Amino acid sequence: MTMTLSRNNIGINLPAATPTSTSSAKPNNPIPTNPSKQCGNCGAHSGYFLHQVRLLGILRRLCTSCVLRLHPSSFCPACFDYYNGSPPQHPNRIACSNCSSLAHSHCAGGTFLSSYLCPPCKDSSFSFFPLKDNKIDKNLALPLLCAAKISAASMEKAANVARAEAVKKAQDAALAKKRAREALEHLLYVTIRENARNKENENAKVEDMDLDNGDGDGDIDVDLVRHIEDSLAKDEPID
């Protein structure tokens, strides 16, 4: 990368992006483009500048032009002033009649409110970043810087959202852990109570068996006891 300086011009020459060939590629076949260097919106190959943005809850890698196209209300399309969430108020701004783009009134050149069209709406083939011969001058540096600011703000919001989601998941996990602990404690209490009840029933059955005389009602037969006692006293066989 080389930089050229003059009194009225500042330019940056980017090195040529020459793809490396593989031994399996045939000479007449085009070398496949690296997907990591493709814009996630227009599919254009950008070997130098891809911006990470969070769009509709999805992280995407976009070229400079697509970043600006997809955030029309975040900057002035004429001077590339980034609004940072505070666009100019009336009457210092003018809105595009076809999209949500907002431009400074003085940048729009006194265009009537109902007839103003931003550059992309005026020309469908318009590009905010028409890089040619890998050279960046001041006219290209402005949209590049604006797109970088939009990307930085977008990623800061994405980090805040991720942080909030992490805190919420941690709170949900703590609540689930508390409920699981309470459920285990209740299960332990029910198990201990059931075991105690079963033990009482077993003891009651043993007592009933000891007192049962065979008639099935569980009461002691007094006559039989007296007969046994008399037989033992007389040393007679028990009938």
- Low-confidence region ranges: 18-27
Per DSSP E runs of 2 or more residues, the count of β-strands stands at 7
Query: How widely separated are the two ends?
Result: 122 Å
The ordered string of helix (H) and strand (E) elements is: EEEEHEEHHEHH
Biggest β-sheet: strands ordered side by side in the sheet: 1-2-7
Mean pLDDT: 78
Described by strand count, sense and barrel closure, the largest sheet is:
3 strands, antiparallel
Question: What do you see in this structure?
Answer:
The chain is of the alpha+beta class and 239 residues long. It has a domain at 36-154. It has helices at residues 64-69, 105-108, 119-122, 138-211, 222-234, and strands at 2-5, 10-13, 51-55, 58-62, 93-95, 102-104, 135-136. The protein has a three-stranded antiparallel sheet with strand order 1-2-7. Strand 3 (51-55) and strand 4 (58-62) form a beta hairpin. The longest helix has 74 residues, at 138-211. 16% of the residues are buried. It comes from Corchorus olitorius. Residues 1-11, 18-27 have a biased composition (Polar residues). This is DNA binding protein. Residues 1-30 are annotated as: Disordered.
